[in-house]
Write a structure and sequence with these properties.
Layout lengths: L6 H11 L7 H24 L9 H24 L12 H34 L21 H6 L13
Helix pairs in contact: 2-4, 3-4
């Protein structure tokens, strides 16, 4: 929209660049979401075992989105035209799109750190016992033969029925 404010020009440019692959976007997002959920579950399981999660490489988050954007631009035009289309890097939309990847890279890095930290907290919560007697402890009552009969019969504070006098 910034480079081509007119809607008809924008649609023409998108169609000429070959954006037919967007029909596969729901499947790609579902697969990426499944991979992220498995990674979070593994992080939570590791935290439950007392292991810490690996650190996130900030350089990967800084380099991967611009690199993926450049590769996407090259591939979509190359696959659409059938030749290696290096001129996609000279398109008027390339530089603004490349610069727009940096805030998204920062947002992805922050979101990944927060999600991994939350997964670690969940894992530790499952590993540690519940605080202050919130758990049930099984206590077995002593066997009746262990109490002396005289002490049990002489107790006035017991909640047993009254004693019957024996003649």
């Amino acid at each position: 929209m910034w480079v081509y404010p007119q809607a008809h020009a924008r649609v023409r440019v998108l169609l000429a660049a070959g954006h037919g692959y967007l029909t596969w976007l729901p499947i790609a997002l579902a697969l990426a979401g499944a991979v992220a959920l498995v990674a979070l579950a593994v992080t939570a399981a590791d935290a439950a075992r007392g292991r810490t999660a690996r650190g996130l490489p900030a350089a990967a988050f800084a380099l991967l989105p611009p690199l993926a954007f450049a590769l996407q631009e090259l591939l979509e035009l190359s696959l659409h035209t059938g030749t290696f289309a290096w001129q996609a890097l000279l398109a008027p939309t390339f530089l603004p799109g490349l610069l727009l990847q940096l805030p998204f890279a920062l947002a992805a890095y922050v979101a990944a750190r927060l999600l991994l930290r939350a997964a670690e907290h969940v894992g530790r919560a499952f590993a540690s016992p519940l605080p202050g007697g919130a758990y049930v402890e099984l206590v077995l009552a002593p066997a009746p033969a262990t109490l002396p009969v005289r002490v049990a019969a002489a107790s006035r504070e017991s909640r047993a029925p009254p004693r019957v006098a024996t003649v």
